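Write out the 3D structure for:
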Amino acid sequence: MEEQQTTPSRWYASLYTQVLIAVAIGILLGYFAPHWAVALKPLGDGFIKLVKMIIAPVIFCTVTTGIAGVSSLEKVGRVGLKALGYFVVVSSLALLIGLAVANLAQPGAGFNADPSQLDTASIAIYQQQAHGRTLAEFLLHVIPDTLVGAFISGDILQVLLVSILFGFALSLTGERARPVHRAVELLGTVVFRLVQIIMRTAPLGALGSMAYTIGQFGIGALAHLANLMLCFYLTSALFVFGVLGAIARASGFSLWRLLRYIRHELLLVLGTSSSEAALPLLIDKLERAGCSRSVVGLVVPAGYSFNLDGTNIYMTMAALFIAQATNVHLTLGDQLLLLLVAIISSKGAAGVTGSGFITLAATLAVVPSVPIAGLVLIQGVDRFMSECRSLTNFIGNAVAAIVVARWEREVDAGQLQLTLAGRHDG
């Protein structure tokens, strides 16, 4: 971070250190003073709202200027198709891995829960949201009611669509639109300065979120579903270091070095349980690492809706856990149906707050073999698993942006290697 470069001797001035300390304090408060800890929830919610407030302008400025600066509009379509192809393959692989591990490890075996005896009142809202949108409705929802409506709603896909269209319009208008192009570039400079200001409140957000999670649900809740938690975390690690590590290696860069480069953002995601909290920072860091703005601006925002690797692993693993815990036998056909539905529903519930749990509910609603009432069994630890989901999603999108940029030869290979090695930080 820039703060570290300007004040290297003051370790406590580093945002990374401040967030780390805040997370530790949050855990201690949640454990020793849960009533106080729960009351700190508004700190976490407030920080997330601040970040979401700025995400739409960041995407608009980045995508619009990136497309307007591209000489060939055909290239934009090519980048989009390559990114979507990558998302489908990798996210489907994540679903398959979650399915395979759940079958092998059997984390729900022996739970012997009776679905008819479960109190589903606490998950009623998720059941309602799960039935709220078909695939066709989702596609229509991507189109905002008005040009500025996307920025009012804050829906990432709507903002992305408006930004792409606006960028196309600027490019097609040519030299006459140059003043508008320049104005958007200047706006982007101001917006990223605003991002830096907002990020100074990140320690408070991490403190509030972590304190609330531990205080509300208690560390003791982990013991009851330790098998599921352990399987999910280990599977996510296997996916990140095995699958994403292999993809990174094949693309000519080190995953370990990338993780070191984005470690500040990873800690922020961990503390807030939200990958959106670090979206603006990721875009900025990938550009400084040598990836072109036009590619990063398209791939990263789209990935936040279509490339949710951690959420995909969670969905199939949690669905099979519920089936095993309620003694429901799933045939190969049932599991293939579950996989196909998950591929679609993981895209259809994009952009919804708490999307991991809601998307799982949407999937179970279409696969009658698994009782949706079983969501009650994992509701208490879902918040603890959201950290791992968010981290995996975030890392997956960072890798995706670099991979697509290399496919397009839109990355400065020398600058990327120097930056990831820590010898050049933009």
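The radius of gyration is 22 Å.
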